[in-house]
Design goal:
The protein is α/β, with parallel strands linked by helices and about 425 residues long. The protein is about 35% helix and about 20% strand. Strands 5-4-6-7-1-8-15-14-9-10-12 form an 11-stranded mixed beta sheet, sandwiched between helices. Strands 2-3 form a two-stranded antiparallel ribbon. It has a two-stranded antiparallel ribbon with strand order 11-13.
C-alpha cells in the first residue's frame, strides 16, 4: 500500500527576528541579526553575555491569566501554535470544543530539548530562600518537558495523541518527523508539530559556556553567530518556538486548505560516537539525509536547497559539510545552502522547527534566505552557500532541513514544492 502524502497547511513562529511568521521571514530575507547583548544584572558575571532573545514577549500576546500558568517554553509554543492553527483555517471551529469528529483525528507533537528549566530553577530558588510553602503548585505541569505540547492539545481539542520528543537540538525536527509518521500510520489526519525552547538563563548559559560551546563575541553580538566562517567560535543561544500544521493531502484537499509544501520524508539516525561531539566524518548525518530522500522518493538531483544545522561550532559545521557532500555526491554542487542560525542564533529544541518553516517558505516563495557573517569561508567547506537572498528555479523542487543534537541524534526532513 502507498503511504498517504502529508502536506503543510499552517505555519506559526515566534523568534528573535519577529513575533510571527511574516516578520520572522522578512527579517531572514533582509539578513537581519537577532542577537543582542544581555543587559540584565545576572548576565554581568557570565563569560558569555549575548543571546537571541524573542523579538516579542509572549505575555504581550497571550491572555495574562493563561500566560501565568505556562513556563516560557509553553508560552512560546502556544503563540506559535495558535498562529499556525489560524493560518491553516481551522481556528474557531468546533474542533477546539471537542465537538467535531476531527478532534479525535487531531494530534500534537511539540518538542523541547531542555523543557521548563526557568520554572524549575525559579522554584528551587524559592524553596531555598523562602521555604517549601513558596513553591508554586503549578511548578510540575509548568516544568514538564511535555507541558507545552499538553497545553497546545488542550487549547485545540486534540485527542489523537500528544507527544514530546526530547533529542536535544534535533528535537523540533524529530517532532515534525513524528507528526508525519502519525498521519502515514493512520493515527491522525492533522498534526500540530514543532519545537519550543526558553533557556536564556544564567545556569544553562554558564553550562554551555563551560563546554566552550558558545561564542564569546560579547562586543559584536550581531556578528557572533557565523556558520562556516573560518573565525567562528561557537553558537549563540536563542529562544522561541515554531509550529507547522501537517495534514494528509486527502484531508487538506477535501476542505480546500492552502498548501505550502509537501512534508515528503524524514530520516532519523544516531551517531553512536560521543555525547557532545559529532562523528567527524558525518556518517550519521549522511545516513539521515539518504533515508529522508529515500522515504520522500527524491533523488539527489531533486534537491535544490538545504537549510543546514550549521550552528557555528568549529567541528560541527565541517562535519555537516562533509556529510552533505557524501550524501548528495556530485549533486551537492548544485544545492544552495543557508544557515538561518546566523540570524536567529541556536534555538535548541526549536531550531529544527523554525528552520523547517524557513525551508518551507523558501520552496513556497522560491527564494533562499542568506547566511550572514561569513567573512572568510572555511576552506574545508566546498559548498554553495547563499550570502544574499538567492532565487530558486521554477518547476518541482526538493529541499532538506538538517538537525543534529547532543547524544548523537540526527534528523533530516525532506520537503517538496507543490
Amino acid at each position: 500500500m502507498s503511504k498517504p502524502h502529508v502536506v503543510v497547511t499552517g505555519l506559526g513562529a515566534t523568534s528573535p527576528l519577529g513575533g510571527d511568521v511574516p516578520s520572522t521571514w522578512d527579517a531572514m530575507l533582509a539578513g537581519t541579526p537577532g542577537v543582542s547583548a544581555l543587559t540584565e544584572d545576572w548576565a554581568e558575571q557570565l563569560s558569555v553575555r549575548i543571546a537571541g532573545l524573542a523579538a516579542v514577549e509572549p505575555t504581550e500576546i497571550l491572555e495574562r491569566v493563561k500566560a501565568r500558568r505556562l513556563d516560557r517554553t509553553g508560552q512560546f509554543a502556544m503563540v506559535a501554535a495558535l498562529e499556525a492553527w489560524a493560518d491553516c483555517g481551522l481556528a474557531g471551529t468546533d474542533v477546539e470544543a471537542g465537538n467535531d469528529p476531527l478532534s479525535e483525528r487531531l494530534g500534537v507533537a511539540i518538542a523541547s530539548g531542555i523543557g521548563g528549566v526557568i520554572t524549575l530553577l525559579a522554584n528551587y530558588d524559592a524553596l531555598v530562600q523562602k521555604g517549601p510553602r513558596r513553591v508554586s503548585p503549578l511548578a510540575v505541569p509548568m516544568l514538564m518537558p511535555n507541558g507545552p505540547a499538553a497545553a497546545v492539545s488542550l487549547a485545540l481539542g486534540a485527542k489523537s495523541g500528544v507527544h514530546t520528543p526530547v533529542s536535544a537540538c534535533a528535537s523540533g525536527n524529530e517532532a515534525i518527523a513524528h507528526g508525519i509518521d502519525m498521519i502515514r500510520l493512520g493515527r491522525a489526519d492533522v498534526v500540530v508539530a514543532g519545537g519550543t525552547e526558553a533557556a536564556v538563563h544564567p545556569l544553562p548559559m554558564a553550562a554551555f559556556a563551560q563546554m566552550m560551546a558558545l561564542s564569546k563575541r560579547n562586543d559584536e553580538p550581531g556578528r557572533a553567530s557565523r556558520p562556516w566562517d573560518r573565525d567562528r567560535d561557537g553558537f549563540v543561544l536563542g529562544e522561541g518556538a515554531a509550529v507547522v500544521v501537517l495534514e494528509s493531502a486527502e484531508h487538506a484537499e477535501k476542505r480546500g486548505a492552502k498548501v505550502y509544501a509537501e512534508a515528503a520524508g524524514a530520516g532519523v539516525t544516531a551517531d553512536s560516537h560521543d555525547i557532545a561531539q559529532p562523528d567527524p566524518a558525518g556518517m550519521g548525518a549522511t545516513r539521515a539525509m539518504r533515508r529522508a530522500l529515500a522515504e520522500a522518493g527524491l533523488s539527489t538531483g531533486d534537491i535544490q536547497h538545504i537549510n543546514a544545522h550549521a550552528t557555528s561550532t568549529p567541528q560541527g559545521d565541517v562535519a555537516e559539510a562533509l556529510a552533505i557532500n557524501t550524501a548528495l555526491g556530485e549533486a551537492a554542487g548544485d544545492v544552495v545552502l543557508t544557515s538561518t542560525k546566523s540570524m536567529t542564533g541556536h534555538m535548541l529544541g526549536a531550531a529544527g522547527a523554525i528552520e523547517s518553516v524557513a525551508t518551507i517558505l523558501a520552496l513556497y516563495h522560491r527564494i533562499v534566505p542568506p547566511t550572514i557573517n561569513i567573512d572568510n569561508l572555511d576552506e574545508q567547506v566546498t559548498l554553495d552557500i547563499a550570502t544574499e537572498p538567492r532565487k530558486l528555479p521554477d518547476g518541482t523542487l526538493g529541499a532538506l532541513n538538517n538537525s543534529f543534537g547532543f547524544g548523537g541524534h540526527n534528523v533530516a526532513l525532506a520537503f517538496r514544492s507543490v
